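subagent[fold] <- orchestrator: predict structure for attached chain, return tokens only, no commentary.
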Amino acid sequence: ISSSEEIFNESKQAYEECLQRSGYTNVELKYRPTSEGEPRSRRKRTRNILWYNPPWSESVATNIGKQFFRLIDRNFPSDHRYRKFINRNCIKLSYSCMENMRSIITKHNVSLLKKHNAPAPTNERSCNCRTGTECPLEGKCLTKSIVYEATLKTSEDTFTYVGLTGDTFKARYSTHKSSFTHEKYRTATALSQKIWELKESSTDYTLTWSILKKAHAYKGGGKGKCDLCLTESKCRHQRKFTLIRTK
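subagent[fold] -> orchestrator:
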């Protein structure tokens, strides 16, 4: 960095000789002045955020968030040695609205009792494919209310797609096949977009399906939450399905 072109020309010879000894040919350094109005580039760093998630309860009248930040201001003043780590800018608050401990334990107990008092197996069909080899889910295509995973493999990469359905998997699979076949539906899901990209590039691929977990879909008049969406960890009403690339 030189303040003028004359100073730059006086010192550039040593740098050019060093570059030539390193194997570079036809090296010529040129002076580029910085304009007065040109802003200097600043380093951008992502702020480390610490989240506090107290459980939400309608019976609590105290403003928990306000009291929490008051405690931070009082116990970590500007001259405190941990002030740069614990302050209002790097600590965020968001209420947790998930199930409480009682609800989790009750659901776990009900699940164990269902297994213990399971009724006698019925003759309900789990697959209606013409042959077992054609079933995309290994004979379980009529399973309802599931979170499923599609694994898309090429010779170089592997992609996974996670979705859910409150209906049978066979009905959801038919919709997927339609988006793979008809170009007007190519943007229906992230999976269909990726398959159309592979088709256009003439890339061979294999697609397999599996069940990740079973859950109950939301029913009107229920407890106000959808176990199916919570099991998938990202409700489809808030975020569309995503395609994740794995190494």
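orchestrator: received. Logging for downstream: The helical segments are 5-21, 64-75, 101-116, 169-181, 190-200, 227-232. The two ends are 42 Å apart (CA to CA).
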